[in-house]
Design goal:
alpha/beta, 2 domains, eleven-stranded mixed β-sheet
Length: 516
């Protein structure tokens, strides 16, 4: 691959190396291998399920220990709201009020989502704000026909010189309408954190955002800080970080040559949320909760959601305590009986499939093997019963070395033309709601370097366009997919109430986002 001096300078300024870029191009050429599924993880086969008494015990365990541990809630929040309004953008582009009514447009194009949007209009959290804006800009608004009012409503939401909601980061969009104000997802995360991610009346939250939106988040926090702190009796420490430039990946043409813009410069693209492992790696805490920015609920469901977060945290504290005890014991323990006990712990509590040659290994070899398996970050992941919602799922996976492990797998990583793999995917009972609690320190309290536990062969290649030309983009392994591939993993069944993402504007009309 021959790069010009200008290319090399551009690569260096990004914090990348020529070798790194060449390896990315090679990945495009050879293709990313599909994941090899062994079976779906199910209850009693990789997914734990607890009864009410067991849940209560785990919650009490967390509550008893939470004041003695440092906690951070980590929220990926860089997504823009644009995709939420995709149906509305299409409507504005295609609808011609001179030729048809809104109803005829909906029926002709079978746009059920648009019908749901207009029926639920008054329940939207920003309804009053939009109507107020409309009356200011159109003094005779009440004289307009039904269709004219609806069209103006959509334009007011989206147009650049109006409310311009699609330009907002999703975290700062009005999500819930309370009696006195409309709250954002950002605000709801603060209230949630006070319930389960606080210690000694302090809550630490870290949001990964787009740098251009930093001032907007700062302004929002100043606006709500006093009120939220008074209602929760909690002080909030908010920090932000941005996806790093050196995690961008090169774009290529359909022939796998470097894609260049109109000025001949190389084109790089953000490499997906997997790049956030770098941001997560800089968080120093005993316990880290991870939850997406759009997965929040109104206050009446908050304590129910918090209950399951505490349960997951109870599991990680209990498991961590045992793991630390065994990890330390490996420094001096030499009895095969004790080593086999540690191996059983790894197999039964950490879902580690012990190597077939373990039994025949020497004592020293067993200790090295067990130390390697124990000395890893731990993640406890909530899993929801599959009810047709989108998202990756929990599976047993075999890697190229033959090792079997529990992983969260996206459907794009699975070869659906392979009948055996497709059938395993079809038989999956649960999906991943992105509901994680993480332990990232060893028994000495030293932080793991999370970059050492990534499976770099689980990237994604996607098709994109730039200035009307097709290109191929490379996304790094997902944050909870390949970026955590070599963590110790525990999957736990949690109820659907814990999963309430807002992928489209109509999701705001669902019960967990409505006060009444």
């Amino acid at each position: 691959m021959n790069f010009t001096k200008k290319d090399i300078n551009q690569i260096t300024q990004k914090g990348l190396t020529v070798d790194k870029v060449v390896s990315q191009i090679d990945l495009f050429k050879k293709g990313v291998p599909y994941i090899n599924l062994q079976s779906a993880a199910t209850i009693k086969n990789g997914i734990l399920s607890y009864n009410d008494e067991e849940k209560k015990t785990l919650i009490n365990l967390f509550n008893a220990k939470r004041e003695a541990v440092s906690i951070v809630k980590f929220v990926p929040a860089s997504g823009a709201a644009t995709r939420m309004f995709k149906t509305l953008f299409t409507f504005l582009k295609e609808y011609n009020p001179q030729k048809e009514t809104i109803n005829s447009y909906i029926n002709k194009n079978k746009v059920k989502e648009l019908s749901v949007f207009f029926v639920g209009l008054e329940k939207l959290p920003f309804f009053e704000e939009v109507v107020t804006k409309l009356h200011k800009t159109h003094l005779n608004y009440n004289d307009f026909s039904y269709d004219e009012q609806r069209l103006l409503f959509v334009k007011t939401i989206l147009h650049e010189n109006q409310l311009n909601y699609s330009f907002f980061p999703k975290g700062l969009l009005p999500f819930h309408r309370y009696k006195e104000h409309a709250s954002t997802a950002f605000e709801e995360h603060l209230f949630e954190a006070a319930e389960y991610a606080s210690s000694q009346n302090e809550a630490n939250l870290h949001f990964t955002i787009s740098e251009k939106h930093k001032h907007k988040f700062d302004e929002e926090f100043k606006y709500i800080e006093e009120d939220v702190e008074e209602k929760t009796q909690t002080t909030f420490n908010i920090s932000f970080s941005y996806q790093k430039n050196n995690t961008d990946t090169i774009a290529v043409t359909l022939n796998n040559e470097p894609f260049r813009d109109e000025n001949g410069a190389l084109v790089f693209r953000p490499s997906g949320h997997g790049a956030l492992i770098e941001n997560l790696n800089e968080i120093d805490a005993d316990i880290i909760f991870i939850k997406n920015i759009d997965n929040v609920v109104v206050n009446k469901y908050r304590s129910e959601v918090a209950k399951y977060k505490k349960m997951l945290a109870g599991i990680i504290l209990k498991t961590q305590e045992e793991a630390f005890k065994y990890e330390e014991a490996l420094n001096y323990e030499n009895s095969n009986e004790k080593l086999d006990e540690i191996a059983r712990f790894l197999a039964t509590k950490m879902n580690v499939v012990i190597a077939s040659n373990y039994e025949n290994a020497t004592t020293h070899e067993k200790k090295v093997y067990l130390k390697n398996k124990l000395s890893r970050p731990i993640r406890v992941c909530g899993m929801v019963k599959n009810e047709g919602e989108p998202g990756g799922g929990p599976f047993w996976v075999k890697d190229t070395s033959g090792a079997i492990s529990l992983q969260i797998v996206e459907s794009a990583q699975i070869d659906k033309n392979n009948n055996e793999q497709h059938n395993i995917l079809k038989n999956a009972t649960h999906f991943n709601p992105v509901d994680l609690v993480c332990s990232v320190k060893n028994y000495k309290g030293e932080k793991f370097d999370l970059s050492k536990f990534i499976n770099h062969n689980t990237a994604f290649i996607t098709m994109k366009t730039k200035t009307g030309k097709d290109l191929k983009a490379l996304e790094l392994p997902g944050l909870w997919n390949g970026s955590m591939a070599f963590w110790n993993t525990i999957f736990v069944e949690v109820p659907l109430i814990t999963f309430n993402p807002v992928k489209t504007v109509n999701d705001l009309l669902k019960a967990p986002h409505q006060i009444k």
